[in-house]
Each structure stands twice: as C-alpha cells, then as structure tokens.
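Quick question: who can interpret this fold?

. . .
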Amino acid sequence: MSPYTMIRNRAYWPYYLAALACTLFLLILINVRIDGRLFAVDQAIYRQLQLLRAQWLDDILITVTQLGDTLMVTVITSVVALWLLVRKSWRTAGYWVLTIISSAVLNTSIKAAIVRARPGDMMYSGWSAYSFPSGHTTSNIVLYGLLCILIYPCIEKRAARILTVCCAMGFALLIAISRVYLGAHWFSDVLGGILVSTLILCIAGARYHAGKTHTLTAGAFLIPIVATLLIVGSIHVWHGRHISMQRYMPPALSSQATGNTPPPAAAAPAAGTP
C-alpha cells in the first residue's frame, strides 16, 4: 500500500492523531522537566486567573471539579461496566474498564517520574501531590470520550450525535478548566492531560471499532450516567464541600510553588483525583 493510499484511508487517521498527540506531549514533558519557557506562560496564566477569582464562580467550578474526582470517576466506571456485563457485552466492558484503568496507571506513572509541584499547597499527599499531568483532565476526557466512542454509532440522528458529543466532552473540558482556575494545576498540566487522553482514546477507539462491536442503546446507556451524576454526585458534593472550599481557597500569589521540586508533606489526607 502506497503512503498516499494510507493517508487517504480513514482507518489510519486515529493513529496519525495519536502520533501527533504523543509528539506534542513529549515536547511539553521535556519543557516541563527542564523548567523551560512554558513555565513562564504557566505562571502568567496562574497569576491572572487568581486575580480574577470570584466567589460565585468558585462555587460553580468547585462543584464541577468535585464531580470529576476519583470517587465520581470510579462510580461512573463501575455503573457502566455493570450495565455492560448485564447486557453480556463482554468485549465492550473489557475495553471500557481496561482503557480507564490504563489511563489512571499511565497518569500516575508520569506524575511519579516528573515529580512536579503544584502551584500551591492543595492538601494532597503521596503521588496525588504531584502536578503533571492533570489527573482530573486525563481521567474525565478518557471516560467521557470513550462514552462517546461507544454510543456514537448507536445514535441515528446526526443532531442528536453532535449534541451528545458536545455535552459529554464539554463537561470533561469544563472539569479541566476548573483545575487551572482553582489553582490546582498549571496550564501545561492540563494541556498534558488533554494530549495523554487524546492518545489513549485514539488507540482504544480504533482498536475497538476494528473488531466486533455490540449493539448498545444510547438512551439506556446515558440514563445511568446522568442518574449517577445527579444522585451520587449531589451527595458527594455536599459531603465534601467543606474540605473542597478549604483546599481551593484563593492563595497568596507570593506563595506559589516554582519548578519541579517535591512539595512538602500534606497536613491532611488527599480526597479526589489530582
């Protein structure tokens, strides 16, 4: 097969996008590791956003970031996996669980290798105290992106497809934005998380659709997700509100962390995805 034919073949496009995402991620990783020019951009964005903090917007984005933490990702993953197993969609359930677990393992491994400090003390401990790449961003884009990959072929109307993808990915990106706004991550942390999740989704999606897929009902698939966000999410947001308000309190700009130095031990246990 000639190179031109391979480029024209849409089956290869996910792999091209994955290669591009991987290349960009490696460039950012190297820049982060050596405290390159990107760190000056990170600091400028951080300072500007902290100056723009408002109580009403804090309340909204703290809720958003709570809905994207470890507990919520775990519960949603489990609900979808159980639904797929009840439907005897073994292969789909396997791809679902393996992809999300792989993204978590990869993200944590990179954190442990880079050891980058967060902009401020976020009351995290262990590997969660490290900043690059953003765990909230990686896990939620993989979760909601994979959800779109699974149910997109099941939606007949084009308008409904576009609306579903925009809502799911819009929510995932809002979680990513909340991490920068709340000062939990540098901008490059979130950008790195987006690129890692794009790489994972391209490969997982291409391999999934290359094999035998199962017939899924989009409505029945989305209802458990929305119900989980409303019921479990409401309880979780209410229960962890006090800790989250303390964690994401606007910091003094003079106390921000600098560079890839290990942060001090946290005084309180971690809660939620980094």
Remarks:
- The longest helix spans residues 90-114.
- Residues 94 and 118 are 34 Å apart (CA to CA).
